[in-house]
Design brief:
By secondary structure, the chain is of the alpha+beta class. The chain has two domains: 3-169, GAF domain (Beta-Lactamase), CATH 3.30.450; 180-333, Alpha-Beta Plaits. Helix content is 47%, strand content 20%. The strands form three sheets. It has a five-stranded mixed β-sheet. A five-stranded mixed β-sheet has the order 7-8-6-11-12. The protein has a two-stranded antiparallel ribbon with strand order 9-10. The chain is elongated, with a radius of gyration of 26 Å. The relative contact order is 0.09.
């Protein structure tokens, strides 16, 4: 190998090293899934001339799925080339060059597969794919990309831990549903999405009927049990994409994305009926009858432009008061225009 070739190779390696260091800093700066996926699936392929990067993560307990979907919504069928699997074959745990036969059905000519490892435990794989047959060859050095994959593994865990800390800050410790702060955060995200997509959001403000009597008759521990069981019922009845927030005491707020007025009324009548017919058990294992009253309403993307969370709560609170005043155990629709 002549001097000129050596100099070119050294220059190319130095440039690659600088790119790798810059990409490592970009990855390590990510604290949210959206940021991490933008870097992984958009910036990284462009920087290293890769047609597509694909990641498979072993997620037997759905911990990663829950963390990602809390921020981004359902990931099945999403634009990200990310797959969560309960297990992988032994052959998938090894570094290997992907040949034309492995990739032909995907439209790529060559590729490289490297394992994702954290704390000496295998937890997934990364595939780099190219439309050039010469991009990934059996005799190529993979040290740079192997280091990059190690950084990716660390970033997955870092973002997951950051999201979990945020989740705890946004969670009511008794009922394990969103607290007021967390509900406001969810509200801001869902409103922004509804405005972009011009879809409707359904809202409901619920209050447990005669909750003071429950506490006075059965004790505060039984009251706490009612709150927890109510939230369990709500999360079981509603969709995974819906939000339940404890706004204080025995008052809860629901947010149902992509839900029109007709469907909201049907859903909330069903919720009311299920709660009324569910036996709530006190600390003495005795059944109690529990009912809720609610103010409900629906707003589309345009109507949400000038509405704050406080405005919406004010409208719903008027309807909730009307439901309480007219006999309880009922849902009354809010008139968002009258005020």
């Amino acid at each position: 190998m002549d001097i000129e070739t050596l100099v070119k190779n050294a220059s190319r390696n130095e440039k690659l090293l600088h790119q790798l260091q810059a990409m490592e800093l970009r990855l390590l700066s990510c604290r949210r899934w959206q940021e991490l996926f933008d870097v992984l699936f958009v910036e990284l392929p462009k920087t290293f001339a890769i047609a597509q990067l694909e990641i498979v993560v072993i997620d037997p307990d759905n911990r990663a799925r829950a963390s990602i979907e809390r921020q981004l919504g359902p990931i099945d069928g999403s634009k990200w080339p990310l797959r969560l699997s309960r297990q992988l074959y032994t052959s998938d745990t090894k570094s290997k060059i992907l040949n034309e036969q492995d990739l032909a059905h995907l439209g790529f000519a060559s590729g490289l597969q490297l394992p994702l490892i954290k704390q000496e435990q295998y937890f997934g794989l990364v595939r780099f794919m190219s439309k050039s047959l010469k991009r990934f060859q059996p005799d190529m050095a993979t040290d740079f990309l192997a280091h990059l994959v190690a950084v990716i593994a660390a970033c997955f865990e870092l973002v997951m831990q950051t999201e979990e800390i945020a989740r705890l800050a946004y969670t009511d410790p008794l009922t394990e549903v969103t607290n007021r702060r967390g509900f406001r955060h969810a509200f801001q995200q869902e409103v922004a999405r509804a405005k972009r997509q011009n879809t409707s959001i359904g809202f409901a403000l619920l209050d447990i009927d005669h909750f003071k009597i429950i506490n006075d008759t059965h004790g505060h521990l039984s009251g706490d049990r009612v709150l927890k069981q109510l939230c369990s019922v709500l999360t079981q009845v509603l969709r995974p994409t819906d939000h339940v927030g404890r706004m204080g005491g025995e008052e809860f707020m629901l947010l149902l994305p992509d839900c029109d007025a007709g469907h909201l009324l049907i859903i909330m009548e069903r919720v009311r009926d299920i709660i009324a017919h569910t036996p709530f058990i006190n600390v003495s294992d005795e059944a109690m009858v529990v009912t809720v009253s609610g103010g409900i309403g629906c707003l589309d993307g345009n109507s949400l432009m000038d509405m704050s969370l406080e405005n919406i709560i004010s409208y719903l609170d008027d309807s909730l008061y009307a439901a309480k005043s007219s006999g309880r155990n009922k849902m009354i629709e809010a008139d968002f225009i009258k005020q």
